[in-house]
Amino acid sequence: MADLGSSIADLLSSVLTDWSKFAKFLLLLVCVCAMIFCLVYVTLNNLPKETQEIKFGSAGSILFSRATKNGEEYVVVISPQGWQETAISVDQGDKVKVEASGKVQIDLAGLNAALAARRDADERILQEEVTAGRWEQEKNTFLPEEHYSPEDREKIKPRWP
Asked: Quick check: 157 and 107 in contact, CB under 8 A?
């Protein structure tokens, strides 16, 4: 039994220098991971299966749909237009189904360049609002993307090879 006054470093040193303790520690770690995996698996399999649907399109669009008494309701969200009201409420116990397909290729250099361009545009637009004296009245609801020029929108678009 380890001394209650031992530090974490002492405990780690004890476990890492004794192979039998290390093996028991690994076995305990594997068992805990297996129990967590089983818990997540059982929880996800017991979730409600379907009543809502979300589809992601190729041009950055998202289609929300749901069945109602009068048929189907649809909402299309097109990025990069910020947050959009969908008017679809999800209550506790509602079933939600999310489907996605396609390919993702991440070009970190292109993504970093797009983020830098967006940061520059946001800072320029914010400075314009401050200089014009509108910032104090707009600061709680201000969305820089509403003020992007066509050139800004083109620069902040990631370039995928």
From this structure: no
